[in-house]
Design brief:
This protein is about 60% helix and about 0% strand. With about 80 residues, it is an all-alpha fold. The protein is extended.
Length: about 80
Amino acid sequence: MCCVRCSCGHNRRQMMSLAHAVQTLLHVLQVGVSYMLMLVFMTYNVWLCLAVVIGAGLGYFLFAWRRATVIDVNEHCH
């Protein structure tokens, strides 16, 4: 595929890259898990709700202790 530019100026080759496909699949996985957790929470079962909240807090504590100082304009979650 040649290096064709879209009307918006983005490179079409970058859109069809393996890295973009992997990032898309990870995004779909994150959205799917988020919806499943929302459905678990909407059961209004106290123990399941506590498990979701404690799991989110523990996950943040273990994996988000070192945040990047660079602000990414593509990061929409936080």
